[in-house]
Fold these 2 entries.
Entry 1:
Amino acid sequence: MNYRKLGKILGKIMILEGILMLAPLAVSLIYKENIRYILAFVVPIVALVGIGFLLQVPKPKRETFYQREGFALVAMVWIVMTLFGALPFVINKDIPNYVDACFEMMSGFTTTGSSIITDITKMSHSTLFWRSFSHWIGGMGILVFVLIFIPESNEGSSMHLLRAESPGPQVGKIVSKMKVTTRILYLIYLGMTVLEVGILMCDKPIPGYENEKFFFSLLATFGSAGTGGFGFIPGSMELFHPFSQYVIAIFLILFGCNFSLYYLILIGKVKDVLRSEEFRTYFLIIVAAVTIIFISLMTRLSQIPQAYTTEESFRHSLFQVASLMTTTGFTTTDYHVWPMTATMTLLVLMFIGAMAGSTSGGIKVSRIVLAVKGVYINNRKLINPRYVPKAKFEGKTLEEKTINDVFAFITLYFFLLLFSVLLLSFDPINGQSVTVVSDAGTYAVEHGFFSNFSAVVACLSNIGPAFEAVGPYASFAGYSYFSKILLTLLMLLGRLEILPVLILFNPKTWKKA
């Protein structure tokens, strides 16, 4: 294990996090918040930069590191960033409990969007900004940004980091140079972010928040770009005008696409994008889900507390499909009271997620496609043992190892899901009644199995809100500290797709090779 090299990169990450904290500090100064809120960012900045520079002092014996080191480093980075990123909430007392603050910060960096905050109106501007900004930071991945500054190596050190942090079963460079790849990814990410902010600024301000137009446009875009979903006003996106809701829904779908496809579009290879099997499947699922939910709402309007028009039914269907499929978690209405068909459709989307190579969580469309092909191949082999698989994905012949890796990931995903639901069943909150206030009215929900089940799915797939007692108009505040720590770990496991976190806690990782 190359400890000094790991420490050096970790130190760079800490310095970078300290620099990024200057943004919420500036927000605190702009809105003239009191000294406690200013110190809430000054203290962590000084600590991060100081420790970061100290970690740069020891010179590593070798500059390269290998796959296990890359995977372990990625998991360490996210944990350290969360531990320090939570400090401002504790210092300014917006979230005085450190466990709750770590839950909130891990939810931010992993672009989950689950929250323990029960009254968002009591949060300061700097806290709201830091929460949403963490989505943008974690969306593309903090190490993807740092790869710009890490020297290229023949041993593939940079590639190990990219593979560990990027979502999806297959990861590769879009151009020959890793530095160029990361720069292209971030330029696309930044360009789409600026574009969404600009379009949202064209809409009318939210009634009652006329002076917050740019601030809210920025926070909404941070959540969209990172597919995070932290709310910053009551009701999430409910108070936004229809124009903005349509814009956000469209950008959610766009940010759920593989960013490599945007590079192909920029160099004029549009036909290659349209030939992408995952791309076509992704949009087919979206269209099918919107159609099912829209029909479900229109045929059972009398059973829904909200009085939707035809346009509202379509808009809410499109928005919630875009939000939950991309594992963002923004909401425009209380989907918990929708008909069972619509609710189950959304639950299925929470498992699937968007495309590999995007900022979203979930199992990913590519893995679903590969799993279906794998089942078909195995079925053919049972019928004809001499059958030679000729299945392809994205124009390449599928290797048996790729299919086996997909089945292994899905198996591990559902094992973690069921085991975590079992652990949550011991929480004292089970059986208690939770009062929900939403656009569907005020009603009570008992915290039970489906609440725990959907909470685990929401954290493991990095979605945010779930159903019942942890639905779109509720929070995770009622869980015990043990459950919050468990759900915090699930967010990390989901964002890094399980293996890097397991490698970090494997004793063999830290033994000398």
Entry 2:
Amino acid sequence: MATVTKILFNQRLKTMMVLAVIAGIVIAVRLIDIQILRHNDYLQLAERNRTQILYQTAPRGRVFTADGVEIASNAPSFSLYYLGGQQDPASFYRLARDFAPYLHVSLVELLEKLHTGAKSGKSVLLAENLSTPSTVALQELQYYYPGIYLIEETKRHYPYGDFASHLLGYLGSMDERQWRKRDNKLGYRLTSKIGKNGIEQKYEKELKGKDGGVFLEVDYRGRVKSIIEDKKWAAGSDVYLTLDFAVQKAAQEGLKNSLTGRGAAVALDPRTGAVLAMASAPEYDPNIFVPYSDQMLAPTSKKINEYNLAIQGIYPPASTFKVITGAAALESDSFDTERKISCYGKYDSGPRIFKCWGTHGPVDFWEGMAHSCDVYFYAIAAQMGSAAIERVQRMFMFGRPTGIDLPGEKAGNLYGPTRRARNKSYWFIGDTLNLSIGQGELLVTPLKLAQFAAALASRGNVYRPYYVSKIVSNQTGKTKIVGKPEILQVAELQPETYDKLFKALKHTVDNGTARRAKIKDIDVYGKTGTAQNPHGADHGWFMAFGAYPGEKPSIAVVVFVENGEGGSSAAGPIAHDMLKAYFDNPQHKPVEKEQAEKTQDDYDELLTGEDA
């Protein structure tokens, strides 16, 4: 029995050995077939299975001023990729050594990226935003090294540097929070740049285009065999602003050359609320956030002031507020504009003495406004009381935001007895006198004062300021109207009150403290202001609006120079240059009556289809 069992075991062992030999022969034959006989065929099959996708950033939508100047555009740039092929260490070293000088990266850093690509078998971005001069040399080098590929893209470019930078904003990389909240429909990637401030952030969805990409077939060494698909990008939509290029330029240059180089300037169209200029100094160049990677920047180049003083800086309006005090007085039937009040440089309120900035002698309403006599406004405010002044303040929406569609706008502070009573505090005669000349707790932003100037120029219409007129799609050609006139409130003063305010402000420009804003053949109305500053030199204000003779005012301007010491000397020349830049533009000249009627007839014919 034992012998039979042993025989059966030996037979089974022999059978297993035979099967093992046969299996080994089959594997050996298969390996010979793969490695030797059909090596080229299988290599080609392997090569066909290797594809790489290189994305191309789409051009962002452009930004234009109202007069067609392109202030945000796109410039050509290039990105350099390694397609993840296998290389020997010596080849990697030579590649890194030859490319590193053009990419402004260290040899070690570049070698790490190359090894990462070789390990993963996926494409690796070696450098982006390369300038055209650098790519000339790189294009020659890529022919000597397999796996290197240059792809053309675009980068954001601001041709006028710091022009309207606080309004435009800038681009930056997404942080982790933004990446998690990204809109997948817009095709964001980890390397995508997005708007970080201003218009670039506010209209990110409209400005961002649809990225393209190149689908490549590569071999095992990363060499490009063919382009499978070249998916073309689609540019973002273009944004058209209400800004006037010349007025904005005059505002920025004026602030730069001012006594301190710090301040804000705003211009509005009083007929619509459209923003013609908005400058905050110092400005910054948004190009520093999207530099060519092969261009070296100064270490301090990104230390910028993002604070938009035009909408976030709050200060006492000083003597520009005397227009409100004057309006409150004019609303009273008993107020006499010809009554003279003597100014001896001070006003005795009883508890204390309030000083005037000068000694003006006997002055009436017209001279009191023209020469900004504090004593005159102390006297009329004490006579009519602070409630009347607060009432007119509220008519023009002081203490409330202007409603402009920009983040971070501050409301300022309304100052009056009602507000003080709500806070369960007392109101004193000194508060009334401070209020009458725009001091004390009263605070405004430059934009708020510009909104008031525009409302005054339009005889009461308080418009919401807007800065984008339309957005035009580069894909469909459709136009989306964004900005339009919107009246928030109407300051219903008597028509005679507006007539007298216009007369007083015209007299102030022609013969008073606002003479620096005078322009030949243009009706200019203005008021200066010098705001007391307990922390240093006084601040300078200048408020004005202008019109062609016989026409309604078409521009309102406010200039603020921080620590400028005087409104007339520091802010006046800037306001003058802004007004002149506007009225020097032939496009702003009023259409002749006959021409306007002809244009309307042509339009009517177009609608009816009738011949002339």
